[in-house]
Structure formats: structure tokens, C-alpha cells
Amino acid sequence: VGTYTVRAAKNGYLSVVNQNVIVNANGVTTLNFTMVPGVGNDDQVVPIVATELNGNYPNPFNPETTISYAIKDRANVRLEIFNTKGQLVRTLVNQEQATGRYSIVWNGRDNDNNSVSSGMYFYRMNAGSYVSTRKMLLMQ
Q: What is the mean pLDDT of the chain?
């Protein structure tokens, strides 16, 4: 709850800033950004020194969460969601990706577009020889 300045940035696009964004309790705040292609300052200032899988945000989440990661060298990237039984729930990414920072939203649905139940889930990223797994909590 409060008033914030929100910045959106993506490699290959100019950064966009929204100021005085008001977030109320028990509500959803939605912002729409129009990203303009170009070389942003962020692209040049923060080099990618390692492939890494970041924590999802928010966590716990409902109804969706954003998973971000960085790829140091071009690689085949696979990002998957698993339940606590180790069963594949959803494949979010399965493609070759260039060096860069990426993020993807998981909407709490499986590969058949069915809503999944509340509980603990794991997301795993494979990129070349890099493998990392993290956990997240869906609360409905």
C-alpha cells in the first residue's frame, strides 16, 4: 500500500517510467506500458555476467506470477513448472534464446489451460549446462 514510481525495462527497448502509482489494500493495480524499440541505457550499463534463474514475483501469488531469468550465452532454454509429485504441469519456454534478460508470466494454468490447485510448485530452468530449480506458492 502506498504511492510508487514504477519502471519497465527490457533489452532492446527504451525504459518507461510511471510516477505516482497508487496501490490500495485488497485491490489489483494494473499498469499498461507501451515499449518503444531502441537501445536503452540499461542494456549498456548492466552486462549479463552469468546465466541465472531469479525468484518469482509475487510469491506467494494469485492468480499469476512473473519468473525472470538471464542468459549469458545463447542457449536452448527450457523453463518448466512441476507439482510436488514431480509431474510436469506447464512448459513456459522451450526454445533457443540469445544473451539477455527475460521474464515470463505464469497464470496458474497447466499445459491444457486448466487452473491448477493451490499449493507448492517448482519451476526449473535448463539453459545449456545450467540447471536451477526454485519453489513458489499458489494461494487461492
A: 89
Please check whether residue 92 is in contact with residue 80, taking contact to mean a CB–CB distance below 8 angstroms. Answer: yes
Cβ atoms within 10 Å of 91's Cβ, excluding its own: 12
- Whether residue 40 is predicted with pLDDT greater than 60 in this model: the reply is no
Within its chain, how far is the Cα of 19 from the centroid? 22
- Please give the Cα distance from 110 to 93 (Å, whole number): 13
Q: Omega of the bond prior to 63 within 30 degrees of 0, cis?
A: yes
The CA distance from 32 to 44, in Å, is: 25
Bridge partners (DSSP) of residue 104 are 67
The whole-model pTM stands at 0.68
CA distance 36 to 49: 26
Going by DSSP bridges, is the β-strand pair 16-23/130-138 parallel, antiparallel, or unpaired?
unpaired
Question: Which residue is listed with cell 507439482?
Answer: 83
